[in-house]
């Protein structure tokens, strides 16, 4: 017998895509407009200006119709040549995937290895840069917020390692699950290519991605020889909108205009970040509480690097995270993120970024605790009370 279809809204606590505010949904459902029309150009350029303010850059931005992978690829093919060395800071599934992409594109990938629960040692990065006296390394790639493990890598420390060694490599940062949720400052932190996507902190549907590009990176682009066509920044610069070689996905920009209004005018960017910190602390308080009695625990063990946009929760030995996620989904209509790559089945992830408030996060935590209870997973009951105490403080 098939179970009855659940009523009420599905609780969506994935770390991306994320919940879309109703006003953004409505704005996105805009009738078709001519993307060459000056009236659209006005909306478009206002969005580009807003995106630059969110990236905290006064430099260039190029956009693509495609998910975050598109912007990853664009950042590599526009800046590097066959056989160039890219040094990737290992952080988890997404740093590995970006590295695999770089290898497939014909780059030599070196890795600063790291414990996924603690994150890379900046001293190891600095040693790798110092040892590279010939400056074979052309780019350093870092995932600012590793969505698979719930860890934030401090970009100012990465920049400082490059500066301390006088290394000229370009700094490429994946901000896909940090932009609009965690503090990110492209120009101040000397990021040369900032990779971003629409479906997380920006609270839009999936399918628009972009790269913030520094002047230094634009110079490197002039001599970069990896093959490219759709992603070619030089060709984009010849277009009236300075992006998009093909049809411009106009509806995204009506949505983006609204999400920028919500972030900048209704709430204020600093308040957006503060809200993410507040909700993340509550999630961590709940998980830390559950971890008693050999319960589920925080995957990230480095307090300074715990992510304010996603929390990965490691299951006790012998308990399957995907079974727990099935209970949450099938019985209670709560969608949680799963473990990626080698972490499959070992952890689940609670996304707490984007359009989210206290009742939504408390509903999620209470339902996770319910799923843990009915799933027979050992834990210390009372995680929701710990979250309440955190929020009340
Ligand atoms: N990088 C990070 C940090 C991500 O979280 C994701 C997706 O979740 C990606 C890259 C890949 O982006 P997409 O799935 O939009 O192609």
UniProtKB/TrEMBL annotation:
<keyword id="KW-0808">Transferase</keyword>
<dbReference type="InterPro" id="IPR015421">
    <property type="entry name" value="PyrdxlP-dep_Trfase_major"/>
</dbReference>
<dbReference type="GO" id="GO:0004760">
    <property type="term" value="F:L-serine-pyruvate transaminase activity"/>
</dbReference>
<feature type="domain" description="Aminotransferase class V">
    <location>
        <begin position="39"/>
        <end position="325"/>
    </location>
</feature>
<keyword id="KW-0032">Aminotransferase</keyword>
<dbReference type="InterPro" id="IPR024169">
    <property type="entry name" value="SP_NH2Trfase/AEP_transaminase"/>
</dbReference>
<dbReference type="InterPro" id="IPR000192">
    <property type="entry name" value="Aminotrans_V_dom"/>
</dbReference>
<dbReference type="GO" id="GO:0019265">
    <property type="term" value="P:glycine biosynthetic process, by transamination of glyoxylate"/>
</dbReference>
<dbReference type="GO" id="GO:0008453">
    <property type="term" value="F:alanine-glyoxylate transaminase activity"/>
</dbReference>
<protein>
    <submittedName>
        <fullName>Aminotransferase class V-fold PLP-dependent enzyme</fullName>
    </submittedName>
</protein>
<dbReference type="Pfam" id="PF00266">
    <property type="entry name" value="Aminotran_5"/>
</dbReference>
<keyword id="KW-0663">Pyridoxal phosphate</keyword>
<dbReference type="InterPro" id="IPR015422">
    <property type="entry name" value="PyrdxlP-dep_Trfase_small"/>
</dbReference>
<feature type="modified residue" description="N6-(pyridoxal phosphate)lysine">
    <location>
        <position position="200"/>
    </location>
</feature>
<dbReference type="InterPro" id="IPR015424">
    <property type="entry name" value="PyrdxlP-dep_Trfase"/>
</dbReference>
<comment type="similarity">
    <text>Belongs to the class-V pyridoxal-phosphate-dependent aminotransferase family.</text>
</comment>
<feature type="binding site">
    <location>
        <position position="349"/>
    </location>
    <ligand>
        <name>substrate</name>
    </ligand>
</feature>
């Amino acid at each position: 017998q098939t179970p009855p279809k659940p009523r009420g809204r599905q609780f969506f606590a994935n770390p991306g895509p994320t919940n879309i505010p109703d006003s953004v949904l409505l704005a996105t459902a805009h009738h078709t407009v001519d993307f060459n029309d000056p009236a659209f150009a006005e909306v478009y350029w206002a969005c580009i200006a807003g995106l630059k303010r969110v990236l905290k850059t006064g430099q260039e931005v190029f956009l693509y119709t495609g998910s975050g992978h598109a912007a990853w690829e664009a950042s590599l093919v526009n800046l590097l040549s066959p056989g160039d060395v890219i040094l990737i800071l290992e952080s988890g599934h997404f740093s590995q995937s970006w590295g695999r992409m770089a290898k497939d594109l014909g780059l030599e990938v070196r890795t600063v290895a790291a414990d996924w629960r603690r994150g890379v040692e900046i001293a190891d990065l600095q040693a790798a840069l110092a040892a590279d006296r010939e400056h074979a390394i052309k780019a350093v790639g870092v995932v600012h917020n590793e969505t698979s493990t719930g860890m934030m890598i401090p970009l100012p420390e990465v920049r400082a390692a490059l500066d301390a060694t006088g290394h000229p490599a370009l700094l490429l940062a994946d901000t896909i699950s940090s932009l609009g949720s965690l503090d990110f400052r492209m120009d101040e932190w000397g990021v040369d290519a900032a990779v971003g996507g629409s479906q997380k902190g920006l609270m839009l549907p999936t399918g628009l991605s972009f790269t913030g590009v520094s002047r230094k990176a634009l110079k490197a682009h002039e001599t970069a020889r990896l093959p490219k066509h759709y992603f070619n920044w030089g060709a984009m610069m010849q277009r009236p909108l300075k992006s998009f070689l093909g049809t411009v996905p106009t509806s995204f920009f009506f949505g983006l205009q609204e999400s920028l209004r919500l972030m900048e005018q209704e709430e204020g960017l600093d308040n957006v970040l503060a809200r993410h910190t507040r909700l993340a602390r509550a999630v961590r308080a709940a998980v830390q509480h559950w971890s008693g009695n050999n319960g589920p625990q925080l995957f990230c063990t480095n307090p300074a690097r715990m992510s304010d946009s996603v929390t990965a929760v490691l299951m006790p030995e012998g308990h399957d995270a995907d079974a727990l996620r099935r209970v949450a989904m099938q019985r209670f209509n709560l969608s949680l993120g799963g473990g990626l790559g080698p972490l499959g089945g070992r952890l689940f992830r609670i996304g707490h970024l984007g359009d989210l408030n206290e009742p939504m996060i408390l509903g999620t935590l209470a339902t996770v605790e319910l799923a843990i209870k009915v799933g027979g997973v050992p834990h210390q009951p009372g995680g929701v009370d710990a979250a309440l105490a955190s929020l009340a403080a």
